[in-house]
Amino acid sequence: MSGKLIDGKAFSERVRARVADAVSGMASAGVVPGLAVVLVGEDPASQVYVRSKGKRTVEAGMRSFEHRLPATASQAELLAMVEQLNADPQVHGILVQLPLPSQIDSAAVIGAIDPAKDVDGFHPVNAGLLATGQDALVPCTPLGCLLLLRDHLGDLSGADAVVIGRSNIVGKPMAQLLLRDSCTVTVAHSRTRDLAATVRRADIVIAAVGRPEMVTGDWVRPGATVIDVGINRVPNPAKGGDSTRLVGDCDFDSCAAVAGAITPVPGGVGPMTIACLLANTAVAAARAHG
Ligand code: GUN
C-alpha cells in the first residue's frame, strides 16, 4: 500500500494511559470515577463490547458497574434503572448499550439520563451544547476520529471534509466536531446524488454508513486521509464453513493504494471509542467534584 496506516490501537493506549494518570490524581482527593453500563438482552456483539468496556474501565483505575436486563424488559423497568443510576453518587457516567429491543423507545431512555452523566454524549442537551460551540460531553466514536485526525494532520482548519452517514451517534456529531475545527464539512448520505464525486473532493473522508466495503479507491482523492468507522461482519469464503471476517465501510486495499493515510478495521477507530468513553467518564467525575 502507498498510504500510511493510522494505528488507532497504539494511539488509544496513549489516551488510556493519560486517563489513568488523571484518575490516579483524582484518587488523592478521594474521588474514584465510576462508569455504569446497562445491557438489555443478549446480543452477542453488544456483550463483547460491554465486557471490553468493563475491563478497560477497571484498568484505568475507575469503578465499573454492569447492569443487565432481559430482552423482554419494559421501558418502565429500564427508566427506573436509569433513575437509580442518576441518583447514585458513585456513578459519574451512564451508558445504555444500543440498539435496544423494539418495545423500548431509545430517545426516551437517552432523554432520561442526567446530561452530566451522559458519557455517550447522546442526550439532546449535550447535542445542543456541541452544536452551539459550548462545553459538552461529546459522542465517543466521532471524538476518537477527531483525535486521530489531529494527531495525523495537525491543524485541520480549511480542510474539505466529507462525512458519509448522518446518524445521531456518528455522522451528525462528527460534522459538528469538524466544523468546530474549521473544516469545510459536507454530510453525504444514501440520497446524495453523486456520492463518488462528492467523496473525491475531500481532503478528509469519514465513512460511517454501515455498508461493508462501499467506498472504493476510485472514490478517494490521491493523498486524502480516510477514517473508516464501519465494523461489518461478512462471510469469509477463503476460510470456508461459517467463518466470518471484520471489514470496514471502505474497501481497504483499493483505498489504501490512493489515500495519504487510512485507519484499518479492526485496530483503527474501534479502540479509540473506548478510550474516549473512559476520558468522558473522567471528565464527568471531575466536573461532579469540581
Ligand atoms: N452501540 C454501538 N455504538 C454505541 C455507542 O457508542 N454507545 C452506545 N450506548 N451504544 C452503542
Automatic annotation (TrEMBL):
Catalytic activity, EC: 1.5.1.5, 3.5.4.9
Pathway the protein acts in: One-carbon metabolism; tetrahydrofolate interconversion
Example GO BP: tetrahydrofolate interconversion
GO cellular component: cytosol
Domain Tetrahydrofolate dehydrogenase/cyclohydrolase NAD(P)-binding: start-end pairs: 139-287
Catalytic activities: (6R)-5,10-methylene-5,6,7,8-tetrahydrofolate + NADP(+) = (6R)-5,10-methenyltetrahydrofolate + NADPH; (6R)-5,10-methenyltetrahydrofolate + H2O = (6R)-10-formyltetrahydrofolate + H(+)
Subunit structure: Homodimer.
Family of the protein in this entry: Belongs to the tetrahydrofolate dehydrogenase/cyclohydrolase family.
Record keyword DNA-binding present: no
Keyword Coiled coil in annotation: no
Name this polypeptide is given: Bifunctional protein FolD
